[in-house]
User: Fold this.
Amino acid sequence: MDLNKRYTPQTWPDHPETATLEGKNKFVGFWLLLAAETVTFASLFATYLALKDKGPSGMEFSASGLFELPLVFAMTMILLTSSLTSVYAMYHMKNHNFKAMQAWLGITVLLGLAFLGLEIYEFNHYVHLGFGFTNSAFSSAFYVLVGTHGAHVVFGLSWFIALMLRNAKRGLNMYNAPKFYLAALYWHFIDVVWVFIFTVVYLMGVIG
Amino acid sequence: MSSNSQKKGFGATIWDYLTTVDHKKIAILYLISGGFFFLVGGVEAMMIRIQLMKAGNDFLSAGTYNEVLTMHGTTMIFLAAMPILLAFMNAVSPLQIGARDVAFPFLNSLGFWLFFFGGIFLNLSWFLGGAPDAGWTNYASLALASEGHGIDFYSLGLTISGFGTLIAGINFLVTIINMRAPGMTYMRMPLFTWTTFVASALILLAFPPLTVGIFFMVFDRLFGANFFDVTMGGNTIIWEHFFWIFGHPEVYILILPAFGIFSEIFAIFSRKRLFGYTALVFATILIGFYGFMVWAHHMFTVGLGPTANAVFALATMIIAVPTGIKIFNWLLTIWGGNISFTVPMIYAVAFIPSFVAGGVTGVMQAIAPLDYQLHDSYFIVAHFHYVIVGGVVLAILAGTHLYWPKMFGTMLSEKLGKWTFWFFFIGFHLTFFIQHFLGLMGMPRRVYTFGADQGWDLFNAISSAGALLMAIGILILLVNVVMTVMKGERVGNDPWGDGRTLEWAIPSPPPFYNFAQTPLVRGLDPYWIEKMEGNKEGMVYAEPLGDIHMPNGSFIPFVISLGMFIAAFGAMYHTDGHAWALPVLIGGLAITFGSMLVRSLKDDLGFHVTKEELIADNERIQREARALEGGKKGGLK
Ligand code: HEM
Ligand SMILES: [Cu+2]
Assistant:
């Protein structure tokens, strides 16, 4: 692969992410990784459901008493929007419009950071109520499920930022296009997992 | 070694292996380290059998016995059997599909080093305050009560090596999906590649639940979480579910590649196309699929209720069907074949009755009410050793003989090989057959001793004697390896004379780029087809000779794994209140993530082997082949 080869929107392939064998391998491998991630989150969800509201006798916390929807609803909207902005970024990637891609990725990162800030605020709030990680089986399962998702958000954001900085000067080529594509795919996955967390943990939690 | 290939210094060779991304060298790394752990696990097995050889023995204390037993099982499954199978997968399956390397050579190396450091970490427990002692299944109610750091060594060591295995699984899946040579359709793939494929899919879906379970264990023991702590609302059965959702597929991760090796052997040494190739492929897929639906047969006595027990009992019995299909196909491959009883073939023939015996006891245990009697008795020990030793280990020994020439370019002695076989085979049945009866007589598994009045003395003594025979067999194998390496007699492309698949069409060991020109595959058993049509080159090509793109070596996989190894110590000792632990944890993670960042930011585009270099290398290969021929005829060396 020649990194110095210059592309124009006309010579740029329709699917740059799978235009090379390396790209194709990464593409398939990444989907498989997401399958493993899916099993991981499925295990965490199953555990959470098994341990929901379980704690030492006389525990004062329960999902219906603890969770409040407005904040997590805002978080959900922010993360969903960030998924949309990453779609715009990939749209521009496919059209070989590097500047626009970087701009939309920048917005995606900002939204991701906002989500993360709210999540930290939320955890902090619970801890101050006495609902810490070691409080009960319920709290452990909650923090590990939602926290694993949060760790994925951190990783996804770091990935975006690293890619954006690394390639800021040299623009798009066949070597980094698959990387941008996969980072965006990862971001969608994180988003889908959050939709499940919102439903299973918060909505079903508030309903009781 | 040929005169013209450059001799490397010792240091350079070590550095080469530390940084290699070549699947053939990684295979050798897997074989050596897996072989080393196999010996460690074997010593532990001998200690168990010495302790149990007579009633009331005090060779090991109760506590030490628990550690030895736990480490034996854990080592054999995670650090010996799986890595050795990964060695063959690495050595052979890219060649079988006509690929120049795996899809992710860098990750291949990372997978190995993670496994390696995880294994070392686990075994360091012996020197750092005591090994894990809650059994290889590490049930939470035992594990949470275990003092010291043994269990933490187990959890963290298996986490690290588990990541390595997961990476290897993804790598083989992508390799087989994307890197097959032109004409190598799925239904022309050799059976060993097929079983590699399905086993990799099982790795992909089975290891995450184990990792999740182990993370819970780490959080509970080191960070005050309450997943398994009943007094805090936790539930210890959650561990059992996760362990067996992983654990049952795991036994198929082990046995499927073993089936693959035997399938190759039956075809080669019967000089026949595999009987029922299509049925064998679909049986493999079915076994992989069912493998995920039977885990609770390990939990019949937990109290899941009659409905759950009935469903899982039936599902378990169904698995016996595709397995039976395979057995019949192998028998019919041998049937009417032109058989040569080489060492691999002897193992393959011996495997059939041994494994069937294990399958039969498996179906017995699948009868839930009967399992209430059998569970946690020596009957179970007999069952899984019949399938694992009679299946997986025999395949590993057979595969070592079969693929040794392809991996190293020399041939293990057939004569010593037969000695190994007989000692091992007789020893194996002597050790484990009688354990069925010990189980039926009521001897529980995992006990460190028994009383003279219980009537189990004689059978235990016989069992221990069998173990000694197996150990002798393995020692002979070691002698065989040393002698073969010392002699260094080179062999040609197809040392067994009857190779059928692509790996036998190229030199032993193959050049680092495997195929100077990508082969064109014209049917099942492509090399055999070309041989039968009198094609001297053994291959037709899908492309003209041209430059080849190859990946660069890298030291980063080693560093990433080392970082996790260091971080694990920090995580573990942090609970003891050592001031240095937290910095070690953070430092280790910084090494890992820092080197991942370096990897991601530094362009690594690989390099090209030019057409001229290929032509020159081909001349060298031809020269060596002629020298080999001449040596055979004229008796010169
Ligand atoms: C194919 C290779 C096989 C391997 C490697 C294997 C391995 C094992 C292992 C390691 C255990 C013991 C778990 C423990 O309690 O620590 C076990 C138990 C069991 N196996 Fe297998 N097995 C195999 C095939 C089968 C087959 C074909 C069946 C049934 C059709 C079967 C049915 C069972 C059952 C029901 C148990 C649970 C026994 C109990 O703990 O009460 N296995 N197997
Ligand atoms: Cu099982």
